[in-house]
């Protein structure tokens, strides 16, 4: 992990146990698993795909199959904590609910069948709980805000956990991050890669660093959540009485406008800066796949199929969202989690870390 520039650290509770991280190959799950591992916990991870070289014990299991989940997790009789970061994208709300509820229920039922002494479950939601995906929503959003009338898997998963926690005697915490930043191999749902790959290709073509969204989106307030900070919040939630059966917004604790950061990105990458120009990254960037492939070969970067490297729709959505996206983190601070980050300093550090790992090319260093 990169150094913690500007990170205010909460003293995490001591003690160890056995944790299962569902979705340990994803951005959120991989950081949570690593954080627990670093603290000396016995860590098991589960996802459908195989993971290479993970320092924790990984199990490749299809959690959508209840029989496979029960059989695959039968040996995990000592799990005291579940971190549930598994997720499968689907095109409709109904399919999202059916699929992701099944992932969660099958995991909980499998641990119950194994006789695991489960004490706590941490799972993740996000800004869609407040209507971020619909455009404008009341800001700063608070955990006490009412649900939307439209069904969503955040709500149904929360209801499921509440029901089973009362029945089986474990506590839970739901964490609501926004725009999680970090890196996990094979995970294209990553704002860092959207910006970094876009910048690398632009620089290689001799083009300036230009915000590819609307002028309105350039000026609204936004926030992000560092994946390492979220992992610390996960550990805190699983060991703190004040977090039991609660929902918390978790962000870096500051807000910014893209108009403040985009010139900073240009400076950090050693690029010229130009005024915003609205475009569709989903349409434009695939036409430049050959440029990226040349960069990969020239600088011996980690080889990833360009079609699965970056989820360009993530950038299109965020860079065309024309309403403030701010959630209050007061509840978490009052409960005892006070970690905070200066996003303006942190993001360049994370880009440098991706360069060091040969995910992004060295051409993104200033002066290169």
Automatic annotation (TrEMBL):
Domain PRISE-like Rossmann-fold: 71-361
One Pfam family cited in the UniProt record for this chain: PRISE
InterPro entries recorded: NAD(P)-bd_dom_sf, PRISE-like_Rossmann-fold
Cited Gene3D superfamilies: NAD(P)-binding Rossmann-like Domain
Protein name: NAD dependent epimerase/dehydratase family protein
């Amino acid at each position: 992990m990169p150094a913690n520039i500007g990170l205010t650290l909460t003293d995490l509770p001591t003690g160890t146990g056995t944790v299962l991280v569902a979705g340990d190959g994803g951005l959120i799950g991989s950081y949570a698993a690593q954080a627990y591992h670093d603290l000396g916990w016995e860590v098991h991870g589960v996802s459908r795909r195989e993971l290479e070289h993970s320092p924790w014990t990984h199990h490749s299991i299809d959690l959508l199959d209840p029989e496979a989940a029960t059989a695959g997790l039968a040996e995990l009789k000592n799990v005291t904590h579940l971190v549930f970061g598994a997720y499968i994208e689907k095109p409709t709300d109904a399919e999202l609910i059916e699929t992701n509820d099944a992932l969660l229920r099958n995991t909980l039922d499998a641990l119950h069948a194994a006789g695991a002494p489960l004490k706590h479950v941490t799972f993740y939601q996000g800004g869609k709980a407040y209507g971020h995906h619909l455009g404008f929503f009341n800001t700063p959003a608070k955990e006490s805000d009412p649900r939307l009338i439209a069904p969503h898997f955040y709500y149904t998963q929360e209801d499921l956990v509440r029901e089973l926690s009362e029945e089986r005697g474990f506590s839970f915490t739901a964490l609501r991050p926004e725009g999680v930043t970090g890196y996990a191999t094979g995970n294209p749902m990553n704002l860092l890669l959207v910006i970094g790959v876009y910048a690398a290709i632009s620089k290689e073509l001799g083009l300036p660093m230009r915000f590819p969204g609307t002028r309105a989106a350039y000026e609204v307030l936004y926030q992000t959540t560092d994946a390492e900070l979220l992992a610390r919040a996960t550990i805190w939630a699983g060991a703190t009485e004040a977090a039991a059966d609660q929902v918390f917004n978790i962000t870096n604790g500051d807000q910014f406008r893209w108009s403040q950061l985009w010139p900073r990105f240009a400076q950090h990458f050693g690029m010229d800066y130009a005024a915003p120009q609205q475009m569709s990254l989903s349409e434009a960037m695939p036409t430049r796949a050959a440029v990226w492939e040349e960069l990969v070969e020239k600088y011996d970067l980690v080889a990833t199929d360009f079609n699965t490297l970056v989820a360009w729709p993530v950038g299109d959505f965020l860079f065309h969202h024309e309403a403030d996206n701010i959630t209050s983190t007061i509840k978490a601070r009052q409960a005892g989690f006070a970690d905070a980050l200066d996003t303006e300093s942190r993001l360049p550090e994370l880009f440098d870390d991706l360069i060091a790992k040969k995910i992004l090319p060295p051409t993104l260093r200033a002066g290169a």
